[in-house]
Amino acid sequence: MRISRSRSVLLAGAVAVTLSATALPAAFAAPSSTAVISEVYGGGGNSGATLTRDFVELANSGSAAYDLSGFSVQYLPGAPSAGSLWQVSALTGSVAPGGRYLVAQAAGTGGTVALPAPDATGTVAMSAASGSIALVSGTTPLTCKTAADCAADTRIVDLVGYGSAVVREGSGPATGASATASVARAASLADTDDNATDLSAAPPTPVNAAGETSGGGTDPGDPGNPTEPGTVRVHDIQGTTRVSPLDGKAVTGVPGIVTAVRTTGSKGFWIQDTAPDADPRTGEGVFVYTGSTAPAVAVGDSVLVSGTVDEYYPAATTQSITEITAPRTTVLSSGNALPAPVVLDAAAVPAAYVPSAGGASIDALPLEPSVYALDLYESLEGTRVQIADTRVTGATTAYDEIWVTVEPKQNPTRRGGTLYSSYTDQNTGRIKVMSLDTTRPFPVGNVGDVLSGTTTGVIDYASFGGYNLQATELGTLKDNGLRREVTRRQKGGELAVATYNVENLDALDEQAKFDTLAEGVAVNLSSPDIVSLEEIQDDNGAVSDGTVGSEATLKRFTDAIVAAGGPRYAWRYVAPQDGQDGGEPGGNIRNVFLFNPHRVSFVDRAGGDATTAVAAVPTRKGVTLSVSPGRIAPASAAWDDSRKPLVGEFRFHGKPVFVIGNHFTSKGGDQPLHGRYQEPSRSSETKRVQQAAEVNTFVKSLLAADKSARVVTLGDLNDFAFSPTMSALTAGKALKPLITTLPANEQYSYVYEGNSQTLDHILTSPGIRRFDYDVVHINAEFADQASDHDPQIVRIKVDGRR
What we know:
The chain is mainly beta and 802 residues long. The strands form nine sheets. Strands 2, 3, 4, 9, 10, 13 and 14 form a seven-stranded mixed beta sheet that branches.
């Protein structure tokens, strides 16, 4: 089982270690006279290598057997990043005094000589040049990333860093490791706790517990190239759950027809058995992963595949992909007919989305493909499928992928999308389509277009979007003429207030981005009186040099609005403290108010800054702000590493209007809808509920001073109308969410993974009784977009004038 491997740089691996029969030393602070890692080789299966697999060898120089029950060997890349994880290979049995113990790791595609029979087998793909290996008392992954931190972990029995490894013992790592050389201890197994001294480069010499060496015999994980099918079929590999019953085991001569080949990214090919069993749960297709090597097979080849079954997890919270890794492939014949594709349509896809495990993993649950859509897609993993005349629900992305639905009547929006309306009502017919044909341009489609005719390919899984169709034959895109909306202009007595997330706009962006966003304000929004902007960055964007001002950014933007036919807007904002508001590192993201001074005035009250909290000030004539512009409770933990709400006091026809611009913390870190944990955890929600409560408290303070106060709260709240965030924001009926006043099929402003949903909102206080609200669709449904959010606008009757 592997999680999030970097597939473009995988190298096969195995490790050799010397063990002690005595009590564990205090980390590796003192040299061991019994337990050491004796040899490490990460070049197995690489170009130029002789051995087909990497290995780690352990040795015991003590006088008693060393029990390995509950132990592991663990691998960390030589230069670990923040996302690097220690990869664990569990051990069993023991090492005899004076003996060796061989741990085989992942195989590569090169080499001709097998390891001797390993005493334990892992799936870790080690680097030939640099890495760290630890012998650990326990199987819980280590967390240390430096030599000092690892030295303090008493679970580590011994550790070897080689190449340029950061984590090592002593003055430096062992040097000289390569595709043809291991690093190994001298015959004395001396350990001075200095890897550079204790280990040196030499040709790899793996020895197992039986004393066998690599003499060219057959590795159980390397069966060569059989010409007759083995006993294992694809449906035996796929099994009746999401995890293969053969995970981590070697298979020999698995028969199938090559149905698709992938030559970019994670290279490999899919095979499908032409003699399926009668169980709808057990899939008949599987991906054969060839690593960085392009597959040497063609569609229609009849093959026998030998290798190791593996469950690859693209990320810790996703479902897995069942694969055959380190393959040996025999082509028996070519030009064979392919298995007929399974038709995916409204009749085939169940109404329920996924089973529940009470928040736990669904990996072990028996599949029910006739009951749950995700179970159906899992049962078809690696299998040929076909869709026809499917409506586009998510526009073509920069990564050449498009979302369609095979359930045309499922929650349709007015403009052709598929509405996401609750946590319990998932859209089961959504599926992402990609193409394996690199010779043809991918079609560019918008929401509501149709991928007409038939599209055929194999079902795959990815961390972004989940199950997808890797197309070998792509239908034709039919343009249904989706057009960008233009809202009406406000009347004389209407105050028009809009919100627009302009997606990390800064002064270094291309002029085309400024021009397109400006047209959205001047033309599509018909020049609102007030525009609350989210994601305005400082003037040099993602450059971390202490710059926090946005004057150049806003000057370019307002100039572009004038050029697009709009008014000359003024602006107000409160510059954040450097690096304290989240967003893109160095960008100093913030909320900003633009306003048309010919239509509305801004009430400036000095004193507002990054750390000063705005307060409601009761007066005989109502309520005012202590500072304007100001920020809501900037010292509250709710806003740690997040954008603080911007509050401003405006006057329209002499009447005060309070506007609160928001950009709540993102949904990053939440588990995916299609993931292995069901129901998925929404960990980011906690912070947004806290933020919503802070805004609600401030709005209530305004209303306590003047129950008729006109308050508009708006922005990118990063949450849904049905979420706990919205409940916290509207508590006590302080605010009314306007999205719910629209017809159900129009309640969206954002499209994600083929779901039309609402993250942006405008809410109003009870003092605003007459309004006209509109979501203006100009971005989210289109492949060509200036932002991934659609703006919204509300036109408010502040007085009786028209």
